[in-house]
Amino acid sequence: MKLLKSAALACVLTASLAVTAPTAAAAYPVKDPKLTKNSLYDMGALPMTTCEEPPVKRNNRKLARAYLNAVIACLEDTWEHHLWNAGMRYEKVKVRHMDRIPKNYCGFDVGKEDSQAWYCGRNGTLVFQLGKGWLDDPYDLWLFDTAASMYGYHVQKQVGIATAIDKLRHGKKAEYYEQERRESLQTECLGGAFIKSVWPIGNRTTDDWDEFLDLFVGDEPGDERRYGKTSTIKMWIKRGFATGDPGACNTWTAPSSEVA
To answer: Which of 9, 36, 132, 190 has the greatest count of CB atoms below 10 A from its CB?
Structure first.
């Protein structure tokens, strides 16, 4: 099974993260209450539901797209009810499937990987490009988590976290990368929380979950430190999955050692 790390982890930036010059007003660690004390953390666990999965088959793009659409429909139902019940606004996500995402789509520097997923914060759209990397030997739980974690960026937008990220300032480049890791790791955790809310999916067992976690590869030696070490990514997914509660996903108050 060949799954591209860059497609699942290194190509999921939001369009809102701003690079700003350091100023006297810059605060570190992060202190903005919209990030550190967001009401998302106080809403409780996601409601327990079921999510029916369509089949996927090798090298069948049509089925894989239908699979992702079905998972996103489950995500919409869960998060819409969760946020509305907490008195928060909610807008449905848009979904697009492309054979090839344009290089400068939504202001991104889209890479050449054949399988990619992006969230465009400007118009609230999830974009998927399914190629050989994800279709040659498709693993449905990987696709499930890709949809769930990518949807985390949409949740961040709904609750004001994305807007607060847009206003973050940073000093050294290392600080900027740490902010990016906090953002990305939060979406991984939110994805884990959603999976817990619909678990077990089908007839899956703990062994299936452990096998899925073994697929993750984080920042490697020589990489820019944008997404976290493999152990860090797994830790945040596990935190979300352990409780099914977005309150476990507050990466913004975590010590630097936990977002390394």
So the answer is: 190
Written as six digits, the tokens of 103 are: 């290089």
- Start-end of H helices in 123-198: 132-135, 140-158, 161-166, 173-197
Give the whole-angstrom CA distance, residue 214 versus residue 232: 13
> Which residues fall within 8 angstroms of residue 65, CB to CB, at 6 or more apart?
97, 128, 130
Does this model's pTM top 0.70? Answer: yes
**What tokens does 241 get?**
């999955």
Burial of 195 (0-12, 13-18, 19+ CB in 10 A): buried
Decide if 83 contacts 126 (C-beta within 8 A). no
Question: pLDDT digit string (tens) for 55-80?
Answer: 999 999 999 999 999 999 999 999 99
The residue written with tokens 């040659």 in the block is 136
Residue 127 pLDDT > 90 = yes
Q: Which residues are CB-neighbours of 19 under 8 A, at least 6 positions away? A: 170, 176
**Residue 201 DSSP label:** P
Residue of 163, 52, 143, 154 whose CA lies nearest to 94? 154
Residue 225 near residue 181 (C-beta atoms within 8 A)? yes
CA distance 93 to 230: 29
**C-alpha dihedral over 138, 187, 124, 156, to 10 degrees?**
160
